[in-house]
Design goal:
Layout lengths: L2 H10 L12 H12 L4 H4 L1 H6 E2 L1 H5 L1 H22 L6 H8 L2 H37 L7 H21 L1 H28 L7 H6 L2 E2 L10 H11 L1 H6 L5 H4 L7 H30 L3 H6 L4 H8 L2 H35 L6 H4 L9 H14 L14 H28 L14 H18 L23 H18 L19
Antiparallel strand pairs: 1-2
Helix pairs in contact: 2-10, 2-15, 2-18, 6-15, 6-21, 6-22, 7-8, 7-21, 8-9, 8-18, 8-20, 8-21, 8-23, 9-18, 9-20, 10-15, 10-18, 17-18, 18-20, 21-22, 21-23
């Protein structure tokens, strides 16, 4: 499909070609692959799986949950093929359902994208601090210093996204190869340099419960509450793949290339991530030290390797996370632009503007500013934890917001049945069973990730402390209540879903 044909298809969906359509199919795949980032989530939330299930939560949990996420990806690939617009899942929901569906989907997606940007950049700041601490061992742990790094990284990502959309495309491509080569180096170092490795039995059968819930690793509380909490590692790492849709208006041949880019980014990340995580587990020989550090993945490197290779791994991960955060800002800003273009965001005229480089500058600045604000609670943390609970809460907000946004158009597509008009990439008759699996999986994980992650975060517990509270249900609840109230009192009277800004469909 030529650029003119892409523009014609976009006009049929109701929009002018305002963004520069300079991205290749590989660049489209690259942005989701970079946002998923096995050099980010596998490192930053490793402790969550280690403390809630241990090796089995990783060696078995990762491939199991990856299969369910790939099914969600297949469902979304069919939708982006039919509707390749920057609004992505919001547009799909409004097209397949009613304005109210688009309203809720858009806001959930926007909240999820802001939260995933915040979580990735905060994780990057944490690993930058860990890397620098290797050079300055006298540094004391400091949440304020990490937050300062976080702010600087957000600013850098905003500037990169503002000043060159062509540079972003190039960096996305570089990011793919950095993730592939970087992961290969990490795995190689952990295979060949440690003096000893864990057994296959440890990696695939060992269970650990450092959560404080239940009685060790036996009984129903462990298998049905603690262990599923460990699955957050996989569910958080493999997310953000809707970016393929958000940059579809900038992608050549989007109806096919965005669909392929979406599911392939999940598939290759799942394989690569599992290999990396297994390398971690086989190198995790000092279990006591890892437990004492709260399950921090860096402890595996510093106990199994000498200073130089351990530092190299931390540096590889930090740069990978930097690429990931850069891609998150791109995706977030395109969604903000698209949703504002349809009048849904307060001050929409400001956020839907593009500059002379055809870049939504104001949307970039606004999203990064909100990402900074929602992470402010990370300046405080309960003692003896691997990371502020606020970080895990932001991670949970990202997962819940994004996956609930995915659920709505998938459900609406299921309801449409044979009336749905597919694009060139389609599920065919398999759409029913795959849609149902995706819907059930999203509902289940959304329930788990609003639950307390520590007994200290349970109201009424003798050791209760506010810094241990998972505020994800509060944040998501406030957002849902707010957008529901806004819809009821006002938006239902004026929000009609996507607004056409083109009168004629051009002839290619």
């Amino acid at each position: 499909m030529t650029v003119d044909e892409d523009s014609k298809r976009l006009a049929e969906l109701g929009y002018k070609q305002e963004l520069a359509r300079t991205w290749s199919g590989f660049s489209n795949f690259a942005i989701s692959f970079s946002i998923i980032s096995i050099l980010a989530g596998c490192f930053t939330t490793f402790y969550q799986a280690w403390n809630n299930g241990g090796p089995v939560a990783i060696s078995w949990g990762w491939p199991l949950i990856s299969i369910f996420i790939l099914i969600i990806g297949f469902c979304m690939s069919e939708l982006v093929s039919a509707y390749p617009t920057a609004g992505g899942i919001y547009w799909w929901a409004a097209k397949l359902g009613k304005p109210i569906h688009g309203w809720f989907t858009g806001w959930l997606n926007l909240v999820g994208l802001v939260a995933v940007t915040a979580s990735v950049d905060y994780g990057c700041a944490t690993f930058l601090d860990l890397t620098l601490t290797q050079f300055f061992p006298s540094w004391e742990p400091s949440l304020a210093r990490v937050f300062g790094f976080f702010a600087v990284i957000l600013i850098l990502h905003a500037l990169i996204n503002i000043y060159s959309h062509r540079l972003i495309s190039v960096l996305q491509n570089i990011s793919v190869w950095w993730h592939v080569a970087g992961a290969a180096v990490v795995v190689g170092l952990l295979i060949f340099l440690p003096q000893q490795h864990q057994s296959v039995s440890f990696v695939f059968t060992e269970t650990i419960n450092n959560s404080g819930f239940g009685d060790g690793t036996s009984g129903l509380p462990f298998w049905f509450y603690v262990l599923p909490l460990g699955f957050l590692l996989t569910q958080y790492t493999i997310t953000g793949f809707d970016a393929c849709a958000h940059v579809s208006e900038e992608t050549q041949g989007a109806a096919m290339s965005a669909a392929k880019g979406l599911w392939k980014s999940i598939f290759y990340s799942a394989i690569g991530g599992w290999i990396v995580l297994l390398a971690f587990l086989f190198a995790a020989t000092d279990v006591n030290a890892i437990n004492e550090s709260g399950g921090a993945v860096a402890t595996i490197f510093t106990t199994a390797l000498d200073w130089a290779p351990a530092t190299l791994i931390l540096a590889i991960s930090t740069l990978g996370q930097f690429f990931c955060g850069m891609s998150c800002v791109t995706s977030m800003s395109r969604m903000t632009y698209a949703f504002s273009r349809d009048g849904a965001v307060p001050g929409w005229r400001l956020w839907s503007k593009v500059n002379v480089n055809r870049t939504p500058v104001n949307a970039i600045l606004a999203g990064c500013g909100v990402a900074l604000l929602i992470t402010l609670p990370a300046l405080w943390a309960p003692p003896g934890t691997a990371a502020p609970v606020a970080f895990l809460a932001v991670v949970s907000i990202a997962v819940i917001g994004l996956y609930l946004a995915f659920l709505i158009p998938i459900w609406l597509r299921l309801k449409q049945g044979a009336a749905f008009v597919p694009g060139p990439w389609t599920l065919g008759s398999k759409y029913k069973v795959l849609n149902w699996i995706a819907i059930i999986e999203i509902i289940v994980i959304s329930i788990y990730f609003i639950m307390p992650v520590s007994p200290k975060g349970v109201p009424g517990n003798a050791e209760f402390t506010w810094t241990a509270v998972n505020y994800a249900p509060l944040a998501v609840g406030v957002v849902l209540a707010g957008i529901a109230l806004w819809w009821t009192l006002s938006a239902k009277n004026w929000f009609a879903g996507p607004r056409r800004n083109v009168d004629e469909v051009p002839t290619p």
